[in-house]
Amino acid sequence: MRETPDLESPGGEAEAPAALIEDAPATRGLTGLIWLVPLAAAGLSIGFALRALQQRGPTVLIRAEHGHGIGRGDAVRYLGTQVGEVRRVSIEEAADGDEVQIEVLLRKDAAGLARAGTLFWIVRPQLSLDAVSGLETIIGAQYISLHPGPDGSPRNLDFTALSVAPLEDELSGSQGLEIVLEAPVRFGLQAGAGIAYRGVRIGSVISVGLASDASSVEIRARIRRAYAQLVRERSVFWETGGVEFGVSLTSGLQLDLDSMRTALIGGISMATPIDAGAAVTAGTRFVLAADPEPEWERWAPALPVGNDLLPVGSALPRMARATLSWSEGRVLSRGSARAGWLLVTESGLVGPSDVLRLPPAARDGQARLAVAGRTFSMAELEAEGRVRDAGGGLRSLSSASLGDAWADLRLEQAGAARVEQRELRAPEDLIVVRDGGRAPLAISSSRLSEQEAGMAVDASIPLTADWHGAAVMARSDGRLVGVLLVAADGATVVPAP
Question: Would 78 be classed as within a structural domain?
């Protein structure tokens, strides 16, 4: 029989195994570390809480007629960025009935948005200016959007939400031309319906209602400032929204739907004759026709079109797009090209020298200039003296060089507005324009610095090669002050000849 080892010491006391004696300190140390876990977690929680408190801004109360499904945790956004969140939604009794009260907590860096004049509204799927707005809320959560009040306005923490999203003109503070259209019936028009000239949107309907004596419908509309000069004494307006049906034996049922927007909120078109009369002032009244006369859509007067950023009546310069292409290399030939904008003047075109000069590296001394739908040999243009230096990195191309193409590029017929020009003597606020279909670029005077060749543009301004040769106008008076040249080492505004 195997005997069990005696664990007692000679003194009679029990003696622990060596393995247990060696592990005991490690076990006690691990047990002590376990107590640090909740302490660390508590410290992190406190840290996150303190950080959250540091980022908290003011609590704002928004009163609304309807909640439209808004709830706790939904976002508050400005310029597409979340600047706060909804903390509580409740229904409270008010003087004129129940109302929805929404408590919103703004972020600390957005505290300045809580000021008098700030607009709040709940974004949800609804028809707006050009299409359906709030489309993202169909599959996502509703949210609250805001537009800040004027700078310097006093602090405010109590607001009333708009029932619908505001019109674009209301947010931009546009001082466009407001007119009144009289109609026998409403024609299905609603606020936000567009007003178009030759298919291009130039304004919108602000409100629709009965005249004071209920004898007609009055439609208040605003024409954007850039297009105010299109509305003259003899201008005409007609309704273009809705759905038209037609049935024939050969084609069956035909459906003509202008667009989903005009079908639902209506649309208006306008035209102006050549003998248009004087430009109208705010409050001028016109009759809204149900259908246009055949000749209305054929009218094509020459009228000034400007930009919202320029003074009223400022005409935009006429621009032409040009591309210079050539081949380089003797053994391995490769194609090269350079494009730019050309300014249309009374005597021809003016633009960047690198677009209107034969490149030294052009193979066989040949290069082709494409402009106004025609192609010209640059070598021949230079040999005939039709291209000349205009100073400041610009060259000019005579109108005689363009032949029949000049008829499409020349300044508009008599009566059209001419672009006035002056010198750019010091940095000032500018507008850079290319073609009428794309938004212009605003450049602050603080982004300009004087240099020998003109005004250097700060590198922080996003100017790509597509701006090369664009016209530069002064915001103060709408006059042409120069041409923009874009190079690899920066952009410069040079005086226009």
Answer: yes
Write down which residue in 356, 378, 409 finishes a domain.
409
Q: Which residues of 185-208 are buried (b: 16+ CB within 10 A; e: fewer)?
A: eebbbebbbbbebeeeebbbbbeb
Q: Do 157 and 268 share a domain, yes or no?
A: no
Confidence of residue 37 (pLDDT cuts 50, 70, 90): low
- Helix (H) or strand (E) run with residue 260 in it: helix 260-265
20 pLDDT higher than 60: no
The answer as to whether 387 is a domain residue is yes
Q: Are residues 337 and 256 in the same domain?
A: no
Query: Does residue 95 form part of some domain?
Result: yes
Which residue among 122, 137, 166 closes a domain?
166
Coil, strand, or helix at residue 50?
Answer: helix
Strand positions, DSSP E, 366-440:
367-371, 374-377, 387-391, 394-398, 430-433
Coil, strand or helix at 67:
coil
Which pair of tokens denotes residue 52?
A: 């959250």
Give the DSSP letter of residue 453.
T
Quote the number of domains for the chain: 4
Q: How far apart are CA 39 and CA 330, in angstroms?
A: 77
Angle between helix 18-34 and helix 36-55 axes, rounded to 10 deg: 20
| Least confident range of 46-55, 78-87, 419-428 | 46-55
Give the mean pLDDT of 448-474: 91
pLDDT tens, 385-404?
A: 999 999 889 999 998 888 87
- Same domain, yes or no, for 97 and 145? yes
Cα separation of the two ends of the chain? 121
Structural domain that includes position 397: 319-409
Same domain, 331 and 446: no
Q: State how far the alpha carbon of 330 is from the alpha carbons of 333, 338, 358, in Å.
A: 6, 20, 17
Convert the pLDDT of each residue in 228-287 to its tens digit. 889 999 999 999 865 444 444 444 544 444 444 555 557 899 999 988 888 898 889 999
Q: Is residue 74 domain-shared with residue 152, that is, in the same domain?
A: yes
pLDDT score for 417: 57
> pTM of the entire structure?
0.63
Are 158 and 65 contained in the same domain?
Answer: yes
Find the length of the chain: 497
Residue 21: the pLDDT is 46
